[in-house]
Amino acid sequence: MDSDEDFLSTVSSDDDIMLDDSENDDMSNGDEFDDAFDEDPDDEPDLGLQKQKTPVAYDVGYKVYSPGDIQKQQEEMMNEVNMILEMSKEDAAILLRHFRWNKERLIEDFMDNSDKVVEAAGIVTSVANPPQLETLSEFMCDICCDDDEGLQSFAMKCGHRYCVNCYRHYLTQKIREEGEAARIQCPAEGCSRIIDARSLDLLVTPELSDRYQELLNRTYVEDKDTLKWCPAPDCENAVECGIKKKELDKVVPTVACACGYRFCFGCILSDHQPAPCELVKRWLKKCADDSETANWISANTKECPKCNSTIEKNGGCNHMTCRKCKHEFCWMCMGLWSEHGTSWYNCNRFEEKSGTDARDAQAKSRVSLERYLHYYNRYANHEQSARLDKDMYTKTEKKMVQLQSASGMSWIEVQYLNSASQALQTCRQTLKWTYAFAFYLARNNLTEIFEDNQKDLELAVENLSEMFEKPISELADSKLKVDIMDKTSYCNKRRLILLQDTAENLANGMLFDL
Amino acid sequence: MSLGTKRLGKELTKIQKTLPPGITLVKADDLQEWLLDIQVLDQNPIYAGETYRLKFRFGKQYPIEPPEVVFTKQENRPIPMHPHIYSNGIICLDLLGSSGWSPVQNVESVCMSIQSMLTGNTKNHRPEGDADFVSTNKARPKDIEFYYHDNEV
Q: What ipTM does the predicted assembly reach?
């Protein structure tokens, strides 16, 4: 762990780092980041101040939150705003969502001009009566035109009154069908009053209320740049990481969710160390280039510059509003729409440059096709092998049971097979991406070091893979067990060395031919 | 009784009696589909002397959900030229999408919005990518996600 300090102060002494890093090896791959992050402040008091800095060059600080944690965070912020600004929790919640959970800005703006803030967020401040259903005489609902005697109706503080039935239908439509929550407006035309949680509870079934809360929770995570959902299927956790978008060319912010899934915080793809996001994006696009689907996607879709959702434009003008994050941008140049002024239909900022860029890229890809295939075949091979190794992993458990009965070893004693299998998975994932990485790497003296690291890791992985596939009868041999354990540890070590090395070079501005 | 029955009944009673100038009811035999004709009354050379036919279709959720509103083409009833109207009659107007729709809007107010959208227009052309859109679009008008957001025309 001593080496951690070195990484922060001198980021380029490769050799020391390689040696020191070996100490970390016996930690399992999934947890090493967390552990390293948590332990550091104890070992080295100075680091306490630099908690946000990365202890190891390829490592980023992050935290995993359960749905309960997320709920609690929101409530804490609401309580805080509720106390500081002396308003109801419902109003605090609306304001916080309006400010995308930027509490400091909310308080500052509120102190500055509370009327303006309240108006913009859709809160009408008047006497703080709790919302309630009312029965008025001679009332007609403007939505259903019902005017029966005794018709129950509801209005928010804006005074637009509709019958309970219509209100309920309206809210159900918004929540169920359109997935809206934080920004549901009053049904009246042009009224920007936003429905609050208390009014909603009064109007809809508890089941719909739950759904509303769920959607609200989601907007909290989606609104905050430092939070992202774990993309693993059925995982409800969110991960917090302070990485900035502009740092993504220098860091590959890989995080491991509590569910075990490892992904990149920058682009939400599965672990792609050591390749930076931009490179991964290009590589994947390139690899998919020849399929019809990919052609269609590249011809018809773009990604939202803010949240990366894939968007198909199936009509309309160049003014796009991302359905998910509400980011407004120009379809032509992908720039902010607000910078476009009144030139609604034509974005002349892009045309000229796009033409030349596209032509350049085309020429380049033709020339480098052969080179590309070299890297692609190796990339695809590791992907394929990783899949096969994964099949193997499902068989590992069976293997371990068999081995237990064949050799009389205990459950604990056969865990080395599990470790070996996990090491194979992780290392192949890394190896796969080293080929995409190498494809774009500009040739210089660093390239050679990188290729050596890559070669060492590849050799180790293939060796381990071979041992791992031996029949049970041979696995029972205690010498092979020791060999496998050694090789597993060696593979993990080589992987960390490679990651460390590339991460440092990235941070120092490694050159790519993109 | 479905949600919109009473409301549509009232709307129909009203527009059978009176409608703003330039808007006429053509057919409303049931509460699913209505036809209305609209004309641009100002001296806008693009639309002078023409009558256009609008088709309204009401879903089960009307008026919570917007109606589907398109221009339909037939003899003497062309599709008006407008940078927000495709040649198959589909209209890109935010108030016809779920995010711009308010349940307080009605057939009459929609007709008036479309009428004024034509009145104010000076551009005698179709939306960009019209041919493409018309040949490939299979979505229902209200499922098309991106509408024109500018209100200048």
A: 0.81
